[in-house]
Amino acid sequence: MAWFGALVLFAGAILTFAVGGDIGALDVRTLGVVGMAVGGVLLVAGILRLRRRPRVAGRRAPARVVRDGVQAQVQDRVYRTSKGKIIAMIAVVVYILSPVDLIPDVFLPVGIVDDATAFTWLLFAIGQEVSRKRRSTLTQ
User: Fold this and answer.
1) Rounded CA separation 62/68 (Å)
2) Does 90 score more than 90 pLDDT?
3) Count of CB atoms within 10 A of residue 95's CB?
4) pTM greater than 0.85 (yes/no)
5) From the centroid of its chain, how far is CA 44?
6) What residues are paired with 27 via a beta bridge?
């Protein structure tokens, strides 16, 4: 879901900033802003899903360990994205969507480059977390 949200966000940004004109009765910029908002929501939802445990069909109950006469369950070791990284990714999504930037978009091309850099880091971080999570699921 995070990848699809990033794609919709990127397409909305292209429609908003690079394409002009109308599609039927709709203004392309309005359509782009709506696309960016929907993409941002999907992206945040996908990022939050990185924190959840994966569901594996046919998973056995965790083993029980007896320690000092007390029975305890052993937790499955599953990779979960840290809260700090999730907060950083959500902050980047908010930064990309917000009209307030460190460098305003009016100052071309530098104003666009800071948003593009943040977006690139976000894609890299999502890819890294998805591959780590997939690797930890495969090793169990």
Assistant:
1) 19
2) yes
3) 16
4) no
5) 5
6) 22
What 8-state DSSP symbol labels residue 81?
-
What is the enclosing helix (H) or strand (E) of 64? strand 64-67
- In contact, 11 and 131? CB cutoff 8 Å: no
**How does pLDDT run across 22-35, given as a tens digit for each residue?**
777 778 888 888 98
Residue 137: strand, helix, or coil? helix
Q: What is the DSSP string of 26-82?
A: EEHHHHHHHHHHHHHHHHHHHHHHTTSPPP-TTPPPPPEEEETTEEEEPPP------
One-letter identity of residue 93: V
> Looking up tokens 């930037």, which residue turns up?
101
Total length of the chain: 140
- Tell me the angle at which helices 110-138 and 28-49 cross, rounded to the nearest 10 degrees: 30
Whose CA is closest to 120, among 132, 128, 131, 108?
A: 128
SS3 138: helix
